[in-house]
Design goal:
With 361 residues, the protein is of the alpha/beta class. It folds into three domains: 4-92, OB fold (Dihydrolipoamide Acetyltransferase, E2P), CATH 2.40.50.140; 98-259, P-loop containing nucleotide triphosphate hydrolases (Rossmann fold); 272-342, Orthogonal Bundle (Ribonucleotide Reductase Protein R1, domain 1). Helices cover 35% and strands 22% of the residues. It contains ten helices and 13 strands. It has helices at residues 16-24, 58-63, 132-145, 161-174, 191-197, 214-222, 272-278, 280-285, 303-309, 315-360, and strands spanning 31-39, 42-47, 50-56, 76-82, 86-92, 98-102, 110-115, 119-125, 148-154, 179-182, 203-207, 247-250, 256-259. The strands form three sheets. It has a six-stranded mixed β-sheet with strand order 10-9-8-11-13-12, sandwiched between helices. Strands 1-2-3-5-4 form a five-stranded mixed beta barrel. The protein is flat, with a radius of gyration of 23 Å.
Length: 361
C-alpha cells in the first residue's frame, strides 16, 4: 500500500479537468486537497503533504447562500496549510457531480451526501427489508446527480439461490440497464465482480439504509477494519446504525470509496431529470396521452393509466412515480417560497438601513 507521503493528487482522483479548473480560477498559489470527512463544518482534507483539519474562510461563510456553497466530502478545495495539521479553505473547485437529498425535517433545504462521484453503489440486503421502491428513489437521486448507479444486493448467504434469482428478475422487470451484483459479506461471494468493476482513480459512493452491510462491505473491500460494525439482532434481523459521518477511503486497487451514514429517509430534491430517467417508460408512453398536461391520475384518454391496466407498466412502479412526482413538486414549491421570503427580508433590511441613514441627517 502507498504511504501518504508517497501519494500523488491523482491517487485521490485528481485529473486534468480539475487542474484546468484550478488554473482558470487562479488558484495556482494554493495547495490543493480533497475533503475526506466532515464533522460539523470542520473538514479533514487530504493533500500530498498529509491530512489537515480545516475550516472555511469568513468570506466563504458570509457569502454562502445555501448548503451547496459549503465544502462536502469528495470536494477538491484550494487551501492554505499552517503548522503540521491545520488549514484554511479558500475555495471549492467546481464539481462534476453532486449527490444530494432533501434535508431531513427541513423543508426546502438539501443535504449534500458526496461530490465528484463517478459511480454509486446502491446497497440493499435481500432479507425482509428488501424494497424496490427505495431502489427507485436512490436511482432517481443518482440520475439527477449525474452519477452512474450500480445495485449491490447484500447478505445473499441468508437466502437460497432460487430466491436470489427471483429478486434479480423482479428488479430487472422494473429497472432497466442498471448493473446488479449479488454479494455475501460472510463468504465474500460476488466480491471478485465488484473488484473488477472498481478502477484506479475513479470515485465510488455507497448509499443504503442502516444495517444493509455497507460498513462490512467497505472493510472487506479495503482489506482492513475502517468502519466499526455491529452484529445483527436476532429478534429484528437489523444491524445497528454505527456509521455517523461520511468518509473517503482509498482502496488497495486504487479505487476511491466513500461510505455514508445509513439513510432512513431518502427525500428527493431537484430531480426533474432524475425522474425522467428512472421512469423513462412512463415518460415515453405519456406522449400518447390525450392531454399534454395529463397528470396520469384520473384523466380520460390517459395512455399511462391504460398501460398500467394492461400490465405494460408495473403498478407498484407507477404508484412510486406518482408519490415521488408529488414530493418533487412540493419540494420545488417550498424552495420558491423560501426564496421569496429571503428576497422580502433582504428588501426589508435594505429599507431599514436607508431609513437609518436618512435619520442621521
Amino acid at each position: 500500500m502507498l504511504q501518504l507521503n508517497e501519494m500523488k493528487l491523482e491517487d485521490f482522483g485528481y485529473n486534468n479537468k480539475f487542474e484546468k479548473l484550478r488554473i482558470e480560477n487562479n488558484l495556482k498559489d494554493f495547495e490543493i486537497g480533497r475533503v475526506i470527512s466532515e464533522h460539523k463544518e470542520r473538514y479533514i482534507v487530504k493533500t500530498t503533504n498529509g491530512e489537515f483539519e480545516a475550516e472555511i474562510t469568513g468570506n466563504m461563510r458570509f457569502t454562502a447562500q445555501n448548503r451547496e456553497d459549503f465544502p462536502a466530502v469528495g470536494d477538491w478545495v484550494a487551501l492554505s496549510t499552517y503548522d503540521s495539521d491545520f488549514g484554511i479553505i479558500h475555495k471549492i473547485l467546481p464539481r462534476f457531480s453532486t449527490i444530494k437529498r432533501q434535508a431531513v425535517g427541513q423543508f426546502g433545504e438539501i443535504q449534500i451526501i458526496a461530490t465528484n462521484i463517478d459511480y454509486a453503489f446502491l446497497v440493499q440486503s435481500v432479507d425482509r427489508n428488501f424494497n424496490i421502491n427505495r431502489l427507485e428513489r436512490y436511482l432517481t437521486i443518482c440520475h439527477s446527480s449525474k452519477v452512474k448507479p450500480v445495485i449491490i444486493l447484500s447478505k445473499t448467504d441468508l437466502i437460497d439461490e432460487l430466491r436470489i434469482n427471483e429478486i434479480v428478475e423482479n428488479i430487472k422487470a422494473r429497472i432497466k440497464n442498471v448493473r446488479i451484483i449479488a454479494v455475501s459479506n460472510e463468504t465474500e461471494k460476488g466480491y471478485e465482480e465488484i473488484n473488477k468493476f472498481i478502477e484506479k482513480g475513479k470515485s465510488y459512493c455507497m448509499l443504503g439504509s442502516s444495517g444493509v452491510g455497507k460498513s462490512t462491505l467497505l472493510n472487506n473491500l479495503s482489506g482492513r477494519v475502517i468502519m466499526k460494525t455491529d452484529t445483527i439482532s436476532q429478534s429484528t434481523n437489523k444491524g445497528k446504525h454505527v456509521t455517523s459521518h461520511r468518509e473517503l477511503i482509498i482502496l488497495e486497487n486504487g479505487g476511491i470509496l466513500i461510505d455514508n451514514p445509513g439513510m432512513r429517509e431518502v427525500g428527493i430534491a431537484d430531480s426533474t431529470s432524475g425522474l425522467e430517467v428512472t421512469f423513462d417508460m412512463i415518460l415515453s408512453l405519456s406522449e400518447n396521452c390525450k392531454f399534454k398536461d395529463c397528470t396520469h391520475t384520473n384523466e380520460v384518454g390517459c395512455y399511462v393509466l391504460e398501460s398500467v391496466e394492461n400490465g405494460e407498466i408495473d403498478k407498484d412502479s407507477y404508484e412510486n412515480y406518482l408519490k415521488m412526482e408529488k414530493e418533487k413538486e412540493y419540494f420545488e414549491s417550498t424552495v420558491v417560497e423560501r426564496k421569496k421570503k429571503d428576497k422580502e427580508f433582504g428588501k426589508f433590511l435594505k429599507n431599514y438601513k436607508n431609513d437609518i441613514k436618512k435619520n442621521k441627517y
